[in-house]
Amino acid sequence: MKVTIDKWIGVSTWHWNHAQDEVCGICRVAFDGTCPTCKYPGDDCPLIIGECKHAFHMHCLLKWLTTESSKGLCPMCRRRFKTATE
Amino acid sequence: MESQNAHPAAGYSSLKMQDAPASAVDGHSVTKRLQSELMQLMMSNVPGISAFPVSDSNLCQWTGTIAGPEGTPYEGLTYKISMTFPANYPYRAPVIRFVSPMWHPNVDMSGNICLDILKEKWSAIYNVQTILLSLQSLLGEPNNASPLNAQAADQWDNNKAEYKKSLMAHYKDIEELADE
């Protein structure tokens, strides 16, 4: 029997490669979802990981760092937040 | 809804317009986060604490209860608190107040609380549950170095029997409190 493929549709899934926690500690939405202001997950609403290994939606963390009360510290461990360079 | 398909750019710009007012977006994210907290609180059902929005229409005003921890002068007593969430919660701390009259070194006669994590030590990862648990442990471990109620601090340090007496003189059963 011969089969001819006329057309095929590729489907894929993805998730951020960061399993430590399931949700962003700031907005409590899944990492694979978006921060409250974004509509599309993925590259438009990326994660940010600190040298302290704590991760957040980038938008959530940047907003936290702009507040006076943050003093530039990681919300989890209160160490100065510096983006991990890998 | 034909107009939605008319021109891709038209749909896009209307989306952008919805996103534009920052306050509306903030209000939306506060609601979202508080809804998720409410869900988590109801599912986890932590003994000794409870909290619930006052009305369906305003998710930024909650009322809660804290049971006095065992082995402290507050054992067997239940206290009512009010929680008011700012529009930019969790980037700013909620305002928490004891509604029940409270005799405690770090609480004044109006129910205002002096607790570092609600002020300069606030973090965006704190939530209703962690706040209530912190308040609960504050009951048994007052910070007497900077008291709002100096008399209570003095009694705590020097005369626990007197402390308990003052506490009971001020205490009102939660049922007797007028609904706010």
From TrEMBL, chain A:
Sorted UniProt keywords: Cell cycle, Cell division, Metal-binding, Mitosis, Ubl conjugation pathway, Zinc, Zinc-finger
Tagged with keyword Metal-binding: yes
Highest taxon, organism lineage: Eukaryota
Cross-referenced PROSITE patterns: ZF_RING_2
Pfam families found in the cross-reference section: zf-ANAPC11
Record's keyword annotation contains Glycosyltransferase: no
UniProt domain RING-type: residue ranges: 35-78
InterPro entries assigned to the protein according to its UniProt record, in alphabetical order: RING-box_E3_Ubiquitin_Ligase, RING-H2_APC11, Znf_RING, Znf_RING/FYVE/PHD
UniProt xrefs under PANTHER family: RING BOX
Name of the protein in question: Anaphase-promoting complex subunit 11
Lineage per the UniProt record: Eukaryota, Fungi, Dikarya, Ascomycota, Saccharomycotina
From TrEMBL, chain B:
UniProt cross-references to PROSITE patterns, sorted A to Z: UBC_1, UBC_2
Xref: CDD domains: UBCc_UBE2C
Nucleotide-binding keyword on record: yes
Keywords: ATP-binding, Nucleotide-binding, Transferase, Ubl conjugation pathway
Name of the molecule in the record: Ubiquitin conjugating enzyme E2-C, Ubc11
Active site: 114
Residue span, UBC core domain: 29-176
Organism: Myxozyma melibiosi
Record keyword Magnesium present: no
SMART domains assigned to the protein according to its UniProt record, in alphabetical order: UBCc
Transmembrane portions of the chain: none
InterPro entries for this protein: Ub_conjugating_enzyme, UBC, UBQ-conjugating_AS, UBQ-conjugating_enzyme/RWD
Family indicated by similarity: Belongs to the ubiquitin-conjugating enzyme family.
A Pfam family per the record: UQ_con
Top-level taxon of origin: Eukaryota
